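step=encode ok
step=design start
structure_in=
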């Protein structure tokens, strides 16, 4: 998993925290500090700052507990978990294999339930500490945050838990997992645009929090499509390896080549299919017709491949026998391209055209 901060292997599963988690910690700590400074609670400025910082850390711990609950439930259902990544309002676990409808429902539902349960724990702590104390006030805000995380994750749009809960309900003997995924993706888009509409109405009525609904709705509408596509491919290709769908390629092309050289050697007809790019002996990018089209033909004799390529990270170079599902569920890549190696040698590439061809023949 590229990017983020590695947090070890709790429960035997590699865990990475996305940068957005730490943004949430900082924002929540600031929000708590502002609230404590304006509320009628006793305590010094140093005490307020310490409690606010502690509340920020408890938020990230709450998100961690939320996501680990998915891991625990998946393992209880006999489903191997390959990796987990934490985001601002939850996380994402790559679970191998195709779970039954009941398995998916239970694994997805446990996260929001745990978050809402944590809200209850913090509510009890606030009651015991008293709402006029610093700790009690912070606990009350943590209750609100956890309940909000739980409810937000119940929205039926990928990549949120609610989408998988709904897919578990919709998957039946007459509707397979792929068809259910397509239906849930459509529902997520509708919910996203409806949220945008509600935000616009509030904004026109001079309600400033309508901006948050617009932003949240836009996020849902966009991610419902991209994440839903990955989920659809994952459901269709369960048990398939990268080698089964890759398109064989020649050796990686040099990043120092000009575009003209590249097209002369590798173009098929009017288009260039995606190819891996090598610089100083390392695979560092991919290039295809979309990248070529960003420069005018008059510049092809001078433009270098490495200046046009899409850079890739470690998770975008995969072994040929790796389960395709792991590749498709990468949360940090949207274009679905990856370079395939076997015993250290480049042997192929996975791109949307290869996936669409395999999907059409499945």
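sequence_out=
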């Amino acid at each position: 998993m590229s990017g983020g901060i590695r947090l070890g292997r709790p429960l035997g599963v590699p865990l990475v925290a996305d940068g957005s988690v730490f943004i949430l910690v900082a924002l929540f700590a600031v929000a708590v500090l502002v609230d404590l400074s304006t509320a009628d609670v006793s305590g010094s400025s140093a005490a307020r700052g310490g409690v606010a910082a502690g509340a920020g850390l408890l938020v990230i711990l709450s998100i961690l507990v939320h996501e680990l609950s998915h891991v625990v439930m998946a393992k209880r259902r006999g489903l191997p978990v390959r990796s987990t990544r934490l985001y601002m309002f939850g996380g994402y676990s790559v679970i191998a294999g195709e779970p039954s409808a009941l398995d998916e429902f239970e694994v997805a539902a446990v996260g929001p339930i745990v978050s809402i349960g944590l809200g209850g724990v913090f509510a009890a702590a606030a009651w015991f500490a008293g709402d006029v104390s610093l700790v009690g006030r912070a606990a009350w805000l943590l209750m609100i945050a956890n309940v909000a995380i739980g409810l937000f994750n119940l929205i039926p749009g990928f990549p949120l838990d609610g989408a998988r809960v709904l897919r578990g309900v919709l998957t039946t003997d007459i509707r397979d997992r792929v068809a259910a995924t397509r239906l849930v993706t459509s529902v997520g888009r509708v919910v996203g645009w409806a949220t945008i509409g509600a935000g616009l109405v509030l904004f026109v009525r001079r309600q400033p929090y309508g901006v948050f609904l617009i932003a949240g709705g836009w996020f849902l509408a966009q991610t419902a499509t991209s994440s839903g596509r990955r989920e659809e491919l994952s459901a269709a290709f369960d048990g398939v390896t990268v080698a089964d769908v890759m398109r064989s390629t020649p050796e990686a092309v040099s990043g120092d080549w000009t575009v003209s050289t590249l097209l002369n050697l590798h173009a098929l007809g009017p288009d260039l299919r995606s190819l891996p790019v090598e610089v100083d002996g390392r695979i560092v990018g991919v290039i295809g017709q979309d990248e070529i089209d960003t420069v005018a033909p008059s510049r092809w004799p001078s433009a270098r491949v490495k200046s046009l390529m899409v850079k890739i990270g470690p998770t975008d170079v995969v072994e040929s026998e790796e389960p395709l599902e792991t590749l498709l569920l990468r949360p940090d890549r949207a274009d679905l391209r990856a370079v395939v190696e076997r015993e250290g040698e480049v042997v192929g590439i996975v791109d949307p055209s290869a996936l669409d061809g395999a999907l059409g023949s499945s």
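step=design ok
step=annotate ok -> The CA atoms of residues 20 and 279 lie 31 Å apart.
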